[in-house]
Write a structure and sequence with these properties.
With about 250 residues, this protein is mainly alpha-helical. Helix content is about 80%, strand content about 5%. The chain has one domain.
Length: about 250
């Protein structure tokens, strides 16, 4: 109790909490885009349930990982080297997660650009997405993002309660934004393609990070924000076309 009271009275702890919440919310956008695209393929009456269940199970997993933080930190220890390049378990997890994200985004782009009639090289038409399969894929990707964000958070604060509060606030934001974002993506086909492009970019970034090539996240999110701004302007321009044509004579 004294420890928690001391944290509440420490301005540095509040500053660390604000920084962690900001970081978690930004990282949560990646996860939320993936969740939105994935659950939009489910039947309408199951989509909201799957989104909330996936986010809920993901937060349980993330809080569980926070309680094993010493093990998480140990994942950064090199386990082998190839051609002078050290690889840790964290690196391997990031590479695997990046490859999964690139594969998933590429598959979805392929299906949107050239919808198959009976099946293609990616999957059979009979293989319909279930809620369990969607939740499983959400948890796989959240594991990758969780390990990366926890290791980053350790560099910002040593206090586990601050990390837990940041995760809970972020999940609350994700739960509130999940349905509106998914509905918005579902209503605008061009936004779906833009979101898939974001996932492809994030996947390549994860792979590069796993191989030791650090790409500043500020560049990635600046590019995503600029692309989203241009798409927003395009949507405004498309809505404005009927007005400019005027009434028919």
């Amino acid at each position: 109790m004294d420890y928690l009271l001391a944290l509440l009275a420490d301005p540095a702890a509040w500053a660390a909490l604000a920084a962690l919440i900001a970081m978690e919310v930004v990282l949560g956008i990646d996860n939320l885009i993936f969740i939105s695209i994935l659950t939009n393929k489910l039947p309408k009456d199951r989509q909201s349930f799957a989104r909330r269940l996936g986010i809920g199970m993901a937060v349980v997993m993330r809080l569980g990982l926070l309680l094993t933080i010493a093990w998480i930190i140990g994942l950064t220890t090199p386990v082998f080297a190839v051609f002078g390049q050290d690889f840790s378990w964290r690196d391997l997890i990031l590479i695997a997660g990046g490859l999964f994200l690139v594969w998933k985004a590429t598959k979805e782009i392929h299906h949107h650009v050239d919808p198959p009639d009976e099946g293609d090289i990616f999957e059979s038409r009979a293989a319909e997405l279930t809620v369990a399969a969607a939740i499983g894929q959400i948890l796989v990707l959240d594991l990758v993002f969780s390990i990366d964000s926890i290791i980053t958070a350790v560099g910002m604060t040593d206090h586990i309660p601050i990390m837990i509060v940041a995760v809970l606030v972020t999940v609350t934001v994700m739960l509130l934004a999940a349905d509106p974002l998914a509905n918005f993506i579902g209503r605008h086909p061009t936004v779906v393609m833009l979101a898939l492009g974001f996932l492809l970019l994030i996947g390549v970034t994860l792979i590069a990070d796993g191989f030791g090539a650090k790409i500043p996240k500020g560049y990635i999110y600046a590019a995503m924000a600029f692309s989203a701004l241009i798409e927003g302007l395009n949507m405004m321009a498309r809505r404005g076309k009927p007005k400019r044509k005027g009434p028919a004579h």
